[in-house]
Amino acid sequence: MNTNNHPALMGSLRPSSPSVKLINFSPGPTSLPKAVEEEIAQSFKKPGLTSLALSHRSPEFIDILRRTKASVRRIMNIPDDYELLFTHGGGHGQFAAVPLNLCHNKSDVATYIVNGTWTERARDEATRYCTVQSIDGRDPMGGYTTFPELIEEEIDPESKYLFLCSNETVNGIENHRLPRLPDSRRHIPLVIDASSDFTTKPIDWRDDGVGVLFACASKNIGHPGVTLTVVRKDLLGENCASPLCPGVFNYTTNAEAENLWNTPATFNIEVIGFLMDWLEHQGGVAENERRSIAKSSILYEVIDNSGGFYVTPVQNTSLRSRMNVPFNIKEGDETMTDDFLIQSWNEGMVGLRTLTPFGVGDYLRASLYNCITEEDAVRLADFMKRFARKN
Amino acid sequence: MNTNNHPALMGSLRPSSPSVKLINFSPGPTSLPKAVEEEIAQSFKKPGLTSLALSHRSPEFIDILRRTKASVRRIMNIPDDYELLFTHGGGHGQFAAVPLNLCHNKSDVATYIVNGTWTERARDEATRYCTVQSIDGRDPMGGYTTFPELIEEEIDPESKYLFLCSNETVNGIENHRLPRLPDSRRHIPLVIDASSDFTTKPIDWRDDGVGVLFACASKNIGHPGVTLTVVRKDLLGENCASPLCPGVFNYTTNAEAENLWNTPATFNIEVIGFLMDWLEHQGGVAENERRSIAKSSILYEVIDNSGGFYVTPVQNTSLRSRMNVPFNIKEGDETMTDDFLIQSWNEGMVGLRTLTPFGVGDYLRASLYNCITEEDAVRLADFMKRFARKN
Fold it and tell me: Which of A58, A235, A283, B231 has a CA-to-CA distance to A317 between 20 and 30 Å?
């Protein structure tokens, strides 16, 4: 068989046969929990209009908006002095929106911890709007496998904010708790890109010093087209944002208009509400964290016990991502990797290699977002063990 | 009965009773044609993943993206020298994106024809990024009921573009064909906000001199969360956009990345594809224009023949919107207007008054997007006639 064009190697997400149950390990966008997908399908069968058809100014949508925000606030324990917004343009939109909102002038300083693909992109975007100081998070070999120590001298006390990504999806590096700034820098608000780990661990908003946190929906909380952005209210105000900040990105404008300055992504927001209801029903963030630890541990254990057959790049276990488990096979052996992808795809395990422009060599990635159950993780682990034994 | 809190007066879109068939006259977001809504519901029953769950880099989604773009291009007859993009941030996002892409410096001039709510907002947003020259489209009474004549002397020949909104939804003013610039100004690209009339009439892209055209999805072609933006390719290029243009708004960056620079709104794009298939099946743009003329004529006829019981503000019939028919009742008589809203709501006709911040006095609006059939328009017309007779 000529495997060059095999769907598994092209990143196909379709089932290999109609009877195969799919498990979607994609790094995002990805599936939603089965119960949420069913609730979406049900919503199209109810009488009346679906949220696809609702005016954003109708009482019916305003109720959806209110309930969704209340759920997020309750489940994520977000204090009243934080504003919740559903924003446009995904995580990349926020890469621009953050400096445009928190830096009034180009001379304002912002500090970026750069330890992976996403913080690189966030930093690059910010350079248009403020004076960026980077803390280089590369390891001695020049790769991204760690999170740097936060040293007083490396953080300008005048920084308008300190930016970090709490889970670098491509590189598989996660802060299981937000890092603490040195005491003399605790006045600097943290800005967190939590696109890929939001809802999977608690956040102590005030004590952690969070100023802004955003999460694009398409990994853990919904589907592409909307981003949840949480902003501490003291960072809002008429003259805070740069005069160059587009209205759709302006936190203050949108907060004052109660998220209706322009048309928000109505249906996409309702889906976040469904997800939040599901999450609450499952036991909330504490239970979700337990589950994330369990799912990822199952895979890291297989990798660590494979005698080098599988290798994961992040050695510091306290920084290993619970969301995205990168691993290579026999030091990146191509034929073996292709075999792995084809065989796992045949068994319905899809999304283990996405053809992105952000490739990190030979690593495959198993992403373990809210759609993945412990049973799903066990199934992949069993496959990995079988595959290693055979080879 | 105390009618103050009556759902009809609060802009409710729910059916007055479970047996009532809803007709959604909302100005957008609004319903999709019934067949499209059914196709969406069906898409959740198919085996495999829905587009909600597809990675934007999977062959399955790339196929959806390709097919949707091809449909739009075919149906709207878009030449190859135009790029199609699915963009973020709605129409308001484009209000910023247009000057940020077409004006490299703040000193670059752009001309705005301001003849309604949306061109006012577009102009205000543009002042952040370029030097705006406005052509005032107000009538002698100071209202927006017309479209100004385009006079050579009022258009700076150095303008990077001339902006207009081909259908001002709030004010009910439509250009049934794009206006022609004076010969000496024909080199200036038109930028068209076609958010509310796209697909309802033909566009002669090259001869009309279109440089950029955008349409948020939520009126005629889909649901909120995505905007279709068409850009003439000679306006793209590495150094065209302002260095201040956020990556998500940068036409060139996104065109070069084949619309995958960041995650596009996958499902929202697929829905546009469903709508395009429906449109083609119905007979395309020519048939859709015939239908738009028919639907709006039915209502304008009732208004014009009501002996002043109903009044619509735009007197020039060649500028009357086929998409949004504004009308007041007995010079805005409040009790009568409330009665009208309650009685029509009871019969399932919803969305005739949306509680927006852009109120234009006492006018109700019947919006006649792709979800509204000729039969639906007749039903409203019959109701209006009955109501006028009784009062």
Answer: A283
